[in-house]
Write a structure and sequence with these properties.
The structure holds 3 protein chains of 3 kinds.
Chain A (H helix, E strand, L loop, with lengths): L2 H19 L1 H20 L6 H29 L6 H7 L4 H31 L10 H22 L6 H29 L5 H26 L3
Helix pairs in contact in A: 1-5, 2-3, 2-5, 3-5, 3-6, 3-7, 5-6, 5-8, 6-7, 6-8, 7-8
Chain B lengths: L6 H31 L2
Chain C lengths: L2 H23 L12 H29 L4 H37 L7 H22 L5 H26 L21 H39 L14
Helix pairs in contact in C: 1-6, 2-3, 2-5, 2-6, 3-4, 3-6, 4-5
Classes of the chains: A mainly alpha, B mainly alpha, C mainly alpha.
């Protein structure tokens, strides 16, 4: 089997496991929905359309970030039962293939949540993007991958620590700040149409490239940490 | 003796005190750890 | 403690005192009055807080490199990484605190989300998270995991700085090496340099001491572990992490 086939195997395994229980996706979806509703209570979207457009980008990504974190912790939890993790370490398959498979699976889950959430967002906040909406098709996947790649990596890193759930946000948030800034700015620029998102898309691309390489190279080190 | 009337003066004093507190506090903690480590 | 360490400590205290004297006797600034003297402590700490993280990153790389080749050196590298991370958090906390106190009194705001300040906060957050990872991770893994995190942190800081700089700039124009406005009055330079030296010496001292403490703890933990194999172990002092 070549590398791509290893990745696909891991990906299919995660998708199949998720499909059976649908825990992650349902959890994420309702969490994100809840965040959207609660935030709508905090300010009045209907009366202040300009302000709503200016902050909706940030709100969307905050909702997705929190939702993704609930799923990320869980995604490695299923590898801890039945000594599955030891099996991964012992196998001859490259460790980074496990990482990429899982990261891709998480990416697909969060994207599924986005696909449902974006129309709901538009409806609840009366969003009417003034910029070029097609650019969101680049920005959303890039941003999601930026969050998920580091999230999956750090979720694996904190796998055997105590306070695992609190450790992940503590470590992930500072590292993700440049990416969050870029994705929020890019989304806001499309919604408000006030400036061009090109700079921020470039930042996202650079971030994604640098950190995907770093994660793939260093995953084996943390998998075999002890 | 130490100027403390305006906000400016107070913040100058606070800033220097904070620096000394943090730095020498850490130094003191290290000294305690060093003594304990001789164990 | 060895003689040279005590001598260094003594010399550091002397330089610190002299730096303080220079800071207090430097000529008063036109717009801000005496408040600007915070700068003599703020600047050395902020500059040094960018040196220690890269020491930490270097030590982390060395740890990962020596991990399977030379265990004793790897342990030393790990101890150095921990020590430099703690000193980073210390110096960046001081930088943040002095900056905020100065900013509030001088410009009326405690905080602004410009490139420098946000990156600085991020630096602080990253190294606090490093220390927390060390504390919360399971014992055998601590060194490896924190080494990996250190590498990520070191990559992240410049990326953050550049991206936020494009976003906004409110920090006063760079004092050294900035545009036409930069550079401080030559009469203030000695005070800056003496304080830079003083806090660098203090940082080196504290780093070395923390390193030595950690090395002792490592040796004692090893002796304790070996004790289970039947050797006589010495009394163990609790981990300080």
């Amino acid at each position: 089997m070549n590398y791509a086939q290893h990745v696909l195997t891991h990906l299919r395994k995660d998708l199949r496991l998720e499909w059976r229980t649908k825990d992650s996706i349902n959890g994420m979806l309702f969490f994100a929905l809840l965040v959207v509703v609660v935030l709508a209570i905090a300010f009045d979207p209907a009366s202040y359309p300009t302000m709503t457009r200016q902050i909706s980008g940030g709100l969307l990504w905050v909702a997705l970030l929190f939702a993704a974190m609930t799923a990320l912790n869980q995604s490695w939890a299923r590898e801890t039962s039945n000594n599955v993790l030891d099996a991964h370490r012992l196998s001859a398959a490259p460790a980074s293939a496990l990482f990429l498979g899982k990261a891709l699976a998480n990416f697909l889950f969060v994207t599924a949540v986005e696909v449902v959430l974006a129309p709901i967002f538009t409806v609840f906040y009366n969003l009417h993007p003034l910029g070029e909406t097609w650019k969101l098709l680049i920005i959303l996947p890039l941003g999601t991958w930026a969050l998920v790649v580091n999230g999956t990596f750090f979720a694996a890193l904190s796998l055997r620590s105590r306070n695992r759930e609190t450790l992940l946000p503590l470590v992930l948030l500072p590292i993700s700040i440049p990416a969050l800034l870029a994705m929020i700015q890019a989304t806001t620029s499309v919604l408000t149409g006030e400036f061009e998102p090109t700079l921020w898309i470039k930042v996202l691309v650079a971030y994604v490239i640098v950190f995907t390489i770093a994660c793939v190279l260093l995953f084996e080190t943390i998998l075999t940490a002890d | 003796m130490i100027p403390f009337h305006t906000l400016s003066q107070r913040h100058l004093v606070y800033a220097y005190c904070v620096v000394w507190l943090l730095e020498f506090g850490y130094g003191a903690w290290l000294a305690v750890q060093w003594r304990k480590s001789k164990g | 403690m060895p003689k040279w360490a005590l001598a260094w400590f003594g010399l550091t205290l002397v330089v610190l005192a002299f730096g303080f004297f220079k800071a207090m006797t430097a000529p008063t600034e036109a717009t801000m009055g005496n408040l600007y003297r915070v700068f003599f402590y703020h600047l050395p700490h902020t500059i040094l807080s960018f040196v220690f993280p890269y020491l930490n990153c270097g030590a982390s790389f060395l740890y990962l490199f020596w991990r399977s080749r030379n265990v004793e050196r790897a342990a030393a590298a790990d101890a150095f990484a921990l020590a430099s991370a703690e000193v980073t958090v210390l110096y960046s906390t001081v930088g943040l605190a002095t900056g905020m106190l100065w900013g509030r009194a001088a410009w009326g705001i405690w905080w602004a989300w410009d490139a420098r300040m946000t990156t600085y906060l991020l630096l602080w957050l990253l190294y606090v998270s490093y220390l927390l990872v060390r504390r919360f991770s399971s014992v055998g893994q601590t060194a490896v995991i924190s080494a990996v995190l250190a590498i990520f942190a070191a990559i992240d800081v410049p990326i953050c700085f550049m991206s936020i700089r494009w976003w906004r700039t409110q920090h006063p124009a760079a004092v050294f090496g900035g545009g036409a406005d930069s550079g401080i009055d030559p009469s203030m330079v000695p005070a800056v340099l003496w304080n830079m030296l003083a806090w660098a010496m203090w940082g080196a001292f504290v780093l070395g001491l923390r390193y030595a403490i950690e090395r002792r703890r490592q040796r004692q933990a090893n002796a304790y572990a070996l004790g289970f194999l039947g050797d006589e172990g010495s009394s163990v002092f609790q981990e300080t992490r």
